[in-house]
Amino acid sequence: MASSLPPLPAVEGTEPSRSVLDSFRIAIAKRISEALPLSIEQVYPGVDYGKKGEDFTVALPRFRLPGKVDDLAKQVIEKFQPDEWVQSITHDKAFLHFKVNTNNMMREVLNQVHSLTHDTPSVPEYGTNASGKGKKVIIEYSSPNIAKSFHVGHLRSTIIGAFLSNLYKACGWEVVSFNYLGDWGTQFGMIATGYEKYGSQEELEKDAIHHLFDVYVKVNKDAEADPNVKLEAAKWFKRMEDGDEEALKNWRVWREMSVRKYEEEYERLNVKFDVYTGESQVGKKWMDKALERLDEMGLISDSEGAKLVDLEKWKLGKAVVRKKDGTSIYLTRDIGGAIERAEKYKFDKMIYVVSSQQDLHLAQFFKVLELMEFPWAKDLVHINYGLVQGMSTRKGTVVFLDQIIKEAASVMHDQMKTNEDKYNAIEDPVTTSREIGITGVKIQDMAAKRINNYTFNWSRMLSFEGDTGPYLQYAHVRLASIGRKNPELIPLPPPSQIDTSTLAEYAQAREIAFLLGTYPDVVKTALKTHEPSGVVTFSFRLAHAISSAWDAVIVKGEPDIEKARAKMFLYECARDVLAASMRLLSIRPLERM
Ligand code: ARG
């Protein structure tokens, strides 16, 4: 049943070998170009997905042709003959709606999903594209501050950043992921001062992140009562900046141990970094160079010993780049750091995933780099996101990442226990509840546009009802179980021996197949918008379509083996794509629950 459809012209920017719906779109564009004075290339971008019940829709006015829309439509319709690609056309006001050939669409889509997913199983390729081939992007995300709390802002950066890393990889880019730790600054002088009084090697080894935070809180209390503490701390930090080994010794250990602990927690979240860097790692020489260049260009002014760049012209205030005592600051480190990365990595793009609370900061340092006339300054992108309210656990406010993970796992675990039969059937309830809990947190975070604020709600995000993470995992598990429940059908014969035309009688099957066909476009759109929400929406649409199919497209007990196989094939392909979309969102799809 190999593809033997009539050939189509190639259209720039399409890739039928990765996205077979492109072919159907080309076929539609061809029809229109034959009836109206337009080229296929002109029509193609106007072939949009249709509303429910229609596959594709073309809005005629967009072509700005002379004559009445009705007449134009008539010309297309008069010439129309159904063929192997396009089945029917209807006309409604300014729109032409098209339905593609059901059998061919289903066969082509399912075969493509299957072969691109399983031909090289180590790198499932369905949904990917090569638009970023040969290009390199640095994506900086998460970036918590050592010895301070890991707040929801960092969690959002982690979740969105992990998604973007996967997304750019799926689009063929070489991705280098950076975690830019807040591991420098006067607070380390504070901790060093406090550590002499409150530090404990044992506590540090047990849990560096918690212990350093404790020390920091305590020494801050001391500082409130005694102004000398701050002076002491500033002196200490100055020694660190001057490279005094004695002052740096402890700090090095703290950093190292915190990173190790974070790595474990990121692994739980299915998040990985290529480079752990941080504010401390920005070479002094890059910052000095930057300041020199700014000076030469006459961009720096002096204000009571401090140096600043005046950005009022762009409504970005005055940006201080060096403090009176000569120590560096957050902004200078970002400026120097970007120059260093540009030199070392020669990136084509660099993305910073940072909360919208830092919009001004990012705009300032992007502007400074632009004023310095670095050609790559235009390749810097700030991906921002809104605030989250109300994240606390049953024990109180959340300060650390491991508390968030633990709470998600334990709320989920409690919930699962309420159904005893089901609970007892789960092999490893601890890991399973943690994975589902994390999925719930991630889905809630990525369900709406990034810039929206939202309120953290454990019970809503961890419910099995509604568009939640647990619901998505459940949909995947159900698909994964279909093979186990119908062992006599496994393994399926190769797609060329499966007759998918037996599925044509089920509207649900058609809907699923078409949706699967749209996935490569979902990925492309996400790359344009940098929004995970489109992928989340797609996953739920697919999960809903599958759930409506269960009662109609039944595998178990289907007496006709040809039909049974085709149905099973449909569900296996649905599972492949659902899993792909979940993995893109950094979620690990579960096999059982
Ligand atoms: N560590 C910073 C914070 O917690 C976030 C770092 C953002 N990245 C950057 N290049 N400034 O606020």
Automatic annotation (TrEMBL):
GO molecular function: arginine-tRNA ligase activity; ATP binding
Domain spans labelled DALR anticodon binding: 472-593
Pfam families the record matches: DALR_1 (PF05746), tRNA-synt_1d (PF00750)
Top-level taxon in the UniProt lineage: Eukaryota
A GO cellular-component term linked to this record: mitochondrion
UniProt keyword annotation of Aminoacyl-tRNA synthetase present: yes
Known EC number: 6.1.1.19
GO process annotations (BP): arginyl-tRNA aminoacylation; mitochondrial translation
Reactions listed under catalytic activity: tRNA(Arg) + L-arginine + ATP = L-arginyl-tRNA(Arg) + AMP + diphosphate
Broadest EC class assigned to this enzyme: ligase
Xref: InterPro entries: aa-tRNA-synth_I_CS, Arg-tRNA-ligase, Arg-tRNA-synth_N_sf, ArgRS_core, DALR_anticod-bd, Rossmann-like_a/b/a_fold, tRNAsynth_Ia_anticodon-bd
Keywords: Aminoacyl-tRNA synthetase, ATP-binding, Ligase, Nucleotide-binding, Protein biosynthesis
Family to which this protein belongs: Belongs to the class-I aminoacyl-tRNA synthetase family.
Protein name: arginine--tRNA ligase
Organism expressing this protein natively: Crucibulum laeve
